[in-house]
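[job 0417] fold request received: MTH1187 family thiamine-binding protein
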Amino acid sequence: MIVAFSVSPLGVGEDVGEYVADAVRVVRESGLPNRTDAMFTSIEGEWDEVMDVVKRAVAAVEERAGRVSLVLKADIRQGVTDGLTSKVDTVERYLAEDRD
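[job 0417] inference complete; emitting C-alpha cells
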C-alpha cells in the first residue's frame, strides 16, 4: 500500500517547516520507501507498518504542538511493490511517447 499524508501543527504560526521536519524524520528513519514533496510525504509498505509510521509522525509533531492536522490518502492494492517508483515511471513513459 502507498499512503500519502500531510501533518501540520495548528496554532504555531506560519512557519511550520521545523515541525514538519520532525514528522519526515520519523518516516525516513522507518526504513520504508518514501518520498517527500512540497505538499505530502508518501510511504510504501504493509498496512500495519505504514500506519504505525504515520501515527509516530503525528506524535512527533504533537509533542511540540497541542493541535495537529492530518490529511491522509491511501492506495490499497495487494501484490504491488515498488509502487512509488513504478507509478511515476509509467507516467514518464507516456510523456516520453508524446515527444517521439
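[job 0417] notes: The chain has a mean pLDDT of 93. The radius of gyration is 15 Å.
[job 0417] exit 0
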